[in-house]
């Protein structure tokens, strides 16, 4: 039944002139920065932070720390159901694609695809389905089949002809570590990813991304103050070049400094045992305007949007397709 679902890829450059499309999730990291009176300054500052962090990590043959620039494209995987045309496409998945510009040689180098991850169906799962399932319950629980449909849609996207024609490698998603878990430093060190951390208990996000076919490892890059969670398939350390890994770190560490400064812009680094906290007070703010409370409210609105325009209209088809598509 996979012929009932077709992915098409759209690209839009994320730069200081970026304006979110009407169907872009407004909770998405990059869309948040492009709103309000400070939109252009927000974008300019964020992009400068990304370039600076990239050059700090890619320090070899880079004596003035300005050899590289990072270009970002927003990649939207539009899902068309049946014979639906472009106007009926649902913006199922959004990720970021990095391109590295070597100012010394003039070359453009492929960077990482993935980085940020945005999904309307995930909004529905967490902000509507999971919330309603736990309403008035004494103990938190996960509904049966939670994440199955989303995981299968993601796998369909990555294995689609549209994705394979556009990108050479599977995506790597880079997220914040969970504030409900404890992480412990290991002796494993990577020259780019940094020191590896481990935890003994999977988070709900780990469970959800496992449904997407992605495993997780936690690394704190050089000169960072907290580990990042890297979700990937295959081998994170050998499947990607140093510059690809640096493009993911510089991009997503910048976003996390803006959105979770208590963790990623803290004034002290994670120790051997580390539990991140959004209640931490010893941190610095970036010069970028961001409303975290509004973002949480919008997630619920977008979950309801998904319910009205995707889950309910195609409920029978989605149920039958999901039952026939093996995870």
Written account of the structure:
- The structure is a single chain.
- This protein has helices spanning 29-33, 39-57, 120-133, 148-158, 161-166, 204-211, 242-259, 261-264, 292-311, 315-324, and strands at 5-14, 68-81, 90-102, 108-119, 172-176, 183-190, 194-198, 215-220, 228-232, 273-274.
- The chain is an alpha+beta fold.
- It starts with a strand and ends with a helix.
Q: TL;DR?
A:
The chain is of the alpha+beta class and 327 residues long. It contains 10 helices and 10 strands.
Protein topology:
Blueprint: E1 5-14, H1 29-33, H2 39-57, E2 68-81, E3 90-102, E4 108-119, H3 120-133, H4 148-158, H5 161-166, E5 172-176, E6 183-190, E7 194-198, H6 204-211, E8 215-220, E9 228-232, H7 242-259, H8 261-264, E10 273-274, H9 292-311, H10 315-324
Parallel strand pairs: 4-5
Antiparallel strand pairs: 1-2, 2-3, 3-4, 5-9, 6-7, 6-10, 7-8, 8-9
How many alpha or pi helices? 10
Biggest beta-sheet profile: 10 strands, mixed
* Low-pLDDT sequence parts: none
As a percent range, the share of helical residues equals 25-40%
- The amount of beta strand, in percent, is 15-25%
Shape: globular
Mean pLDDT: 89
Say how many strands there are: 10
Distance between the termini: 14 Å
State Rg. Answer: 20 Å
Structural class: alpha+beta
Element-level helix/strand string: EHHEEEHHHEEEHEEHHEHH
With strands numbered from the N-terminus, the spatial order across the biggest sheet is: 1-2-3-4-5-9-8-7-6-10
């Amino acid at each position: 039944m996979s012929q009932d679902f077709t992915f098409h890829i759209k690209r839009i450059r994320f730069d200081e002139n970026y304006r979110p499309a009407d169907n872009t999730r407004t909770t998405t990291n990059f869309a948040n920065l492009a709103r309000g009176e400070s939109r252009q300054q927000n974008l300019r500052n964020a992009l400068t932070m990304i370039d600076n962090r990239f050059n700090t990590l890619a320090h070899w043959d880079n004596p003035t720390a300005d050899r590289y620039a990072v270009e970002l494209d927003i990649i939207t995987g539009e899902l068309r159901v049946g014979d639906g045309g472009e106007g009926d496409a649902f913006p199922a998945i959004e990720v970021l694609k990095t391109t590295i510009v070597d100012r010394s040689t003039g070359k453009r180098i492929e960077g990482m695809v993935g980085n940020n991850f945005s999904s309307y169906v995930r909004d529905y799962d967490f902000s509507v389905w999971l919330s309603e399932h736990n309403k008035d319950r004494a103990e938190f629980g996960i509904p049966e089949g939670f994440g199955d449909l989303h995981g299968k849609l993601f796998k369909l996207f990555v294995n689609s002809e549209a994705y394979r024609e556009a990108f050479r490698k599977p995506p790597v998603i880079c997220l914040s570590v969970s504030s409900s878990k404890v992480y412990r430093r290991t002796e494993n060190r990577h020259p780019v990813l940094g020191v590896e951390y481990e935890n003994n208990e999977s988070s709900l996000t780990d469970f959800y991304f496992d449904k997407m076919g992605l495993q997780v490892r936690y690394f704190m890059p050089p000169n960072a103050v907290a580990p990042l969670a890297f979700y990937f398939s295959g081998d994170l350390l050998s499947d990607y070049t140093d510059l690809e890994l640096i493009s993911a770190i510089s991009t997503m560490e910048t976003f996390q400094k803006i959105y979770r400064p208590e963790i990623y812009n803290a004034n002290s680094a994670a120790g051997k045992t580390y539990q991140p906290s959004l209640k931490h007070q010893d941190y610095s703010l970036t010069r970028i305007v961001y409303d975290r409370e509004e973002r949480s409210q919008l997630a619920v609105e977008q979950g309801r949007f998904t319910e009205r325009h995707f889950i309910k209209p195609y409920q029978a088809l989605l149920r039958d397709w999901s039952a026939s598509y093996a995870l």
